[in-house]
Amino acid sequence: MATDTGTPQRATPAAPAPPPAGPATALLRARPVQAALLTVLLFAVVFGAYAAFGSLPTRTGLDLGLGAQLDRLYAWVVANRNASPLFLYGFNYLSVGLGSAVILIDQGLTLLTWPGVVVLGVFTAWRVAGWRVAAYVAVTFAVFGVLGLWEQAMTTLALITTSVLLALLAGIPLGIAAGRSQRFYRLIRPVLDFMQIMPAFAYLMPALLLFGIGNPSAAVVTTVYAIPPAVRITAMAIRNVDPGAVEATTSLGSTPWQLLTKVQLPLAKRTILLGVNQTIMLAMSMVVIASVIGAGGLGDAIYQALSKANVGQAMEAGLAIVLMAIALDRVTAAAGDGTRTPAIPERLRLPVLGAGVLAAAVAALAARLAGATAWPAGWELSIAGGVNWLNEALQDLVGDATKALAGATLNWVLDPLRAVLTDSPWWLVVIAAFVLGRLFGSWGTALTGGFAILACGLLGAWEFSMDTLSQVLVAALATVVIGFAVGILASRSDTFAALLRPLLDAMQTLPPFVYLIPAVALFGVGRIPALAAAVIYALPPVIRLVDDGIRGCSPSAVEAAVAQGSSRWQLLTKVQLPLARSSLLLAVNQGIMMVLAMVVIGALVGAGALGYGVVFGMAQNLLGLGLTSGLAIVGLGLFLDRVTQGAARQERTAHA
Amino acid sequence: MNSPTTEHPPSDRSDGDPKIAVHKLWKIFGRNASSVLGTELQDLDRDAIRERTGCTVAVRDVSFDVLPGEIFVVMGLSGSGKSTLIRCLTRLIEPSGGEVLLDGADIGGYGPQRLRELRRHQVAMVFQHFGLLAHRKAIDNVAYGLEVRGMGRTERYARAREMIDMVGLSGNENARPDQLSGGMQQRVGLARALAVDPEVLLFDEPFSALDPLIRRDMQQEVLRLQQELRKTAVFITHDLSEALKLGDRIAIMRDGELVQVGTAEELVGRPADDYVRDFVEDVNRTDVLTVRWLMRPPRDGEPLDGPVAAPRTVVRDVVPLLAAGSAPVRVVDGDTLLGVVGRADALRAIAEDQTEDATKAAADSAAAAGGPTGDGRS
Amino acid sequence: MRDRSTLTRSLPAKAAVVVLAVLMTASCAVRTTSMLRDPDTVRIALNGWVGYEADAAVIEHLLEHELDYQVQIMQIDEQPAWQALDQGAVDVILENWGHEDLMETYGPNGNDTVVDGGPNGNIGHIGWYMPRYLTEEYPGIDTPEGLKEHADVFRTDESGDKGQFLAGAPGFVTSDQGMIDHYGLPLSIVYAGSEAAQLTAVRDAYEDEQPILFYSQEPSWIMEDLDLVRVKFPEWTEGCDADPADVSCDYPKYDLNKIYRKGFATEDSAAFRLIDAWKWRNTDQNVVAGLIARDGLEREDAAAKWAADNKDVWRPWIPEDAAK
Predict the structure, then answer these.
(1) Could you tell me which of A366, A361, A350 has the C-alpha nearest to residue A127?
(2) DSSP-assigned states of every residue in C162-178
(3) Which of A320, B18, B52, C98 has an alpha carbon within 20 to 30 A of A300's alpha carbon?
(4) A250 to chain B: nearest residue by CA?
(5) Between β-strands B336-341 and C41-46, what pairing exists: parallel, antiparallel or unpaired?
């Protein structure tokens, strides 16, 4: 139990309460939060004094000129991609290999024809996950065809397959090594942390530099993005293997290899498959974002719809992506728990497998003979028109209100905040970042946070960074307020939670791009639609964590509080929220990180700032701008993550 | 104390070279472990060492011998270092100092290959939490040690089946661990250890996770198997009655050190210090003292047709035999007559127990009344 | 554990790894062009304006229906599209606006991976536009001087205290900032993110007769729908836009041209010959673009409709020996 983190009220739920205690005050009572508010206040005072008596610098003077260097580097790369040994014997291996693999798989799928693919896919799903999932997969394939997105879906499938296979090929051995060697784990953990903090959008520029454009580069970036969960979960799985079993088998004289193959891997199998599942899900989200650097398939379909502001088309492709994601999720999840796998006697397994493959081959052959290799055009049906009609109706209905809301938010919240952040002397912001880091975490957190913010300036992206930061702060605040409210409601009503669950599931598999489109329709272009999309995008995990946190409170503590006559409100504010605090802090952390990831993607609808730096840098071949903006995004991410995670960690150690 | 004998209790073991000899064994956990050993730091007590270096001394300068065929029990409370000690015996935990000799060979110098050979053939272990492989059937768990040796499937299955029968699990070969009760799981663990036909069995609190009734069954099982197989065994427990029941000799461990090593009778009869005395004070002597301890050569003319008892039968259990007839009980090991125990001998032991209880009660009431505490008890 | 580390540390193992690495690299240097490719698929870059999509739609339709090719259309910005040609990830850019610098880098004088395919028939002219009703309300607002005077007319929430100049996608050819700087216009560029989002905003403003100033270009179907005027900057002369930070003139007129991946051109496939023969007018493009953007037709349907109505226009493009 901590000595001073304001925890007494949780130890004595029945103690007389300080006057009005809402969920917000429950959180505010933690001392770091009070200190942080104080810091913000001080910041405002110093800023005010500076604005009144000093002259506010418009430029930081921090820029190290990295951008220009990177531009030169890029020019060199473009001229030498097929000449320098670094590429000929290095990066090109990866990009060309992966690109070729994508093409090969895609061609394989084309060769199979759609009936063949359907038969093979449904058979595989049945074999692994049983009839229900197989039926679901059949429907998914049908939707691809009906929406006229068959070819795009196959390209995406090829991209996902390639990337996931490679991510696992790299991730699982690394995970095993990390699971078995503490030292190795300590070595790679910061790298993994870093990779996971890095918003997806920031991966694009380095990939563009090293691997160029198109499917190869997209495959590389998707692979890299999807590796961390594979490593982490595998390492965790190995670590969580019953130490007793490991010790017992060691005591019987197992070699390290025997220990791995006979004990650790079999016992860790389920958890590792969970990692595979996570890897696929991450790859799904990246493969859509990677359409910006030329990934084909469904991602490109969404990107095209986005550039045409065609909500209906985007929804079609989005739907296809979501269905594919859920199908892959269900199949791999079933492979993990194994309970739905149909029981087939061992001697029949090979014949069953043979029959499935044969059926697919026959279907493919029949389709070729009948000349029906492509999905029949007559079976296609577009929902885009309907969606667009709905969208326009909605716009007519609430468009004026939402646009007014957008204007008000801009004028009264976003612009003043941005002005404060960009007009402040840079050192004031850096010091504030440092102090916040110290308050919520350790000296290490303070140094990391302060340096991360400083780095934004050193990269020459100070104004953009502060602009993005202002957007993130506003969107994060909205996310936390809404997310906490909905999460608390969900935790108190099973019906509401049950209604919410499928919605949250779907929202979490929906690629980020899709959120932008209705946001643009409702809020016009600019920062507000990006913010709205970011809020919607970040809500599901926040709601989940709040709901889970409250539901996860020790039932005996709740029972005791009820027995002492707490009202429901008292129960919530005095017992459940304080007990769930570490979940709530994690929710804040997750919410902020997702908001950041989305706000930068919002550049595609005119949100400007760092995301725009990336998009513009890419579109105009200004690698320096793109890469420095990308790195500044990472800097902001690092700061926001460390500070909020520091708070969560402090919470954990306080209660340990 | 007026014990019946003061010399070393009679031993039914074949004396000779120890099977295991542990000599000045140390285990210190922590980053600077090497900075403690061999310096004056090592003479400080545990807390002082932790404060000075951050290291935890788990095993401190422990020496003992385990003779062939005996069950050597190490008893201590949690944190006393007993589990660390037993793991040092096959270097599951690497000792920080000292040596462990198996049949006179120092296993500290073994390379990984030789060490594996030792674990595969000579020493097997049974664990508190069983350590079974959840993804394998019982028979595959039992056969594991043979499998990693490289034994073929048919052969190892035959041997494993034999072991499963031996521990009374016939019919459960194909069950997975989670389908078995705790007691049955530990039987699998036992069978697994026995399957490799080791010379030495190590037990790390094997029954403390089990219900009391099942624990008793398992203890019987160990005694039965021991009678049959005559393995050398080191047995860790925190349960005194278990130690007394199973141990040929018992070592009491405290804060990483051995406090006393001796037979049950010695511990009960002559505790080395207050710590051991506190431990054994609630023990009913008639439950511990064996006929071996009480027996005497038969007197002339004494009838030798009385009931028969094994040397390790406790006094309590011979009382009904003595009550049934007038002839003294004959203490027999196999066909050899070791001695006899008559009614008077048994009564004397019971009487001593009660006197002691009375003394203790008096001391306790004196303490309760504010008087000096019972040093006088000794 | 111990034996494992000795294995990896042992000298022979190390040596083997080194030898393997050397063998691998010595045997094959990998160029990006050596990536697998499906010979029956034509990959067309799609830049982010609907006029270009009209080009791509018609070419896709003809390649698929007249020559039995598969077509992959890849959404990609102008500059990266050149890079994609260079790397072999794309076969053709159908509508290129200038970019002499890129031709230097990738063309015969540079990497020698792309070739100029000649004009596609369209004449392109970028410029600043506003609705005609504004010139009636604020005479002279369609000149740099008038803009400077009336910039506050265009103020929005997003642009703050400056007037808003609504740009399209970040990837478009632009010298707007240079022009703003040269004429000292109190304008701030706001990117809509895409042409479609931009034109949606333009149409909304037009319906309500609100002020709006934006980047656009001919050919564009929007010109046929809305009554727009072009801001009159001095006409383009050689070198007036040499310094991107200080541009004293309007945009130049472009003969829009096709750019091929060199390998695509030298293979001389039927698909190449079709694209090479393709040439049409701004009005053709505007018809298809209007079908897509105004009428909301899908790309394929718009192209099919145009193709059905204009058989005589496209028939000559089909290579005689390859027609179905």
Answers:
(1) A350
(2) SEEEEE--TTS---HHH
(3) C98
(4) B92
(5) unpaired
Instruction: Work out how many CB contacts closer than 8 A connect A with C.
Output: 176
CA neighbor of C4 nearest in space, from A445, B183, A181: A181
Q: Residue A252: which of B124, B128, B136 has the nearest Cβ?
A: B124
Question: The CATH number of the domain where C148 resides is what?
Answer: 3.40.190.100
Tell me which chains share at least 3 CB pairs under 8 Å with chain B.
Answer: A, C
Asked if A77 is an interface residue toward chain B (Cβ–Cβ < 8 A), one would say no
Tell me whether residues C2 and B112 touch, CB distance under 8 A: yes
Q: Does A254 lie at the interface with B, CB-CB under 8 angstroms?
A: yes
Report the CATH architecture of B286-353.
Answer: Alpha-Beta Complex (3.90)
B113 and C3: CB-CB below 8 Å? yes
Other CB atoms within a 10 A radius of the CB of residue A412 amount to: 10
Best A240, A241, A250, A251 residue to mutate vs chain B (most B CBs within 10 Å):
A251
| Domains held by chain C: number | 2
Asked which of C218, C233, C253 is the last residue of a domain, the reply is C253
Comparing alpha-carbon positions, the chain B residue that sits nearest to A245 is B131
Which tokens is A328 given?
């892959």
pLDDT in tens, A309-333: 777 888 888 888 888 888 888 888 8
A326-368 pLDDT, tens digit each: 888 888 888 776 666 777 777 777 888 888 888 888 887 887 7
Among A348, A382, A416, where does a domain finish?
A: A382
Report cis status (omega within 30 of 0) of the bond before C219.
Answer: yes
Per residue in A500-526, pLDDT tens?
888 887 777 777 777 877 777 777 767
Domain boundary (C228, C253, C278) is at: C253
Q: Which residues of A touch B114 (CB under 8 A)?
A: none
Q: Which of A633, A615, A405, A622 has its CA nearest to residue C168?
A: A615
What is the count of structural domains for chain A?
A: 2
Strands B336-341 and B329-333: antiparallel
Contact, C158 vs A527, CB < 8 A?
A: yes
**Same structural domain for residues C73 and C94?**
yes
| Residue A304: CATH number of its domain | 1.10.3720.10
Which residue of C71, C191, C210 to mutate against A (max A Cβ within 10 Å)?
A: C191
Same domain, A190 and A304: yes
Rounded-to-integer distance, Cα B124 and Cα B196, Å: 8
In chain A, the residue whose alpha carbon lies closest to the alpha carbon of B115 is A253
Name which of B131, B149, B192 is nearest A244 (Cβ-Cβ): B131
C-alpha B36: how far from chain center = 30
Q: What is the model's pTM? A: 0.78
Contact C74 A214 (CB under 8 A): yes
Which chain B residues have a beta carbon less than 8 Å from that of C2?
111-112
- The DSSP code for B179 is G
**Number of Cβ atoms within 10 Å of the Cβ of A492:** 16
SS3 C15: helix
pLDDT at A173: 92
* CATH number, residue C296: 3.40.190.10
Which residues of chain B are within 8 Å of residue A246 when distances are taken between CB atoms? 131
Across B59-81, average pLDDT: 91
Residues of B in contact with C1 (CB under 8 A): 112
- DSSP bridge pairs for B200: B123, B232
Å between B112 CA and nearest CA of chain C: 7
Q: Is the ipTM of this complex over 0.85?
A: no
Give the domain extent around A434. Answer: 21-55+399-656
State how far the alpha carbon of A75 is from the alpha carbons of A68, A72, A615, C241, in Å.
Answer: 11, 5, 18, 22
- Chain C residues close to B112, C-beta within 8 Å: 1-3
Note whether B113 contacts C2, CB cutoff 8 Å: no
Compute chain C's Rg from CA coordinates: 25
Residue A407: its chain C contacts at CB < 8 A?
A: 157
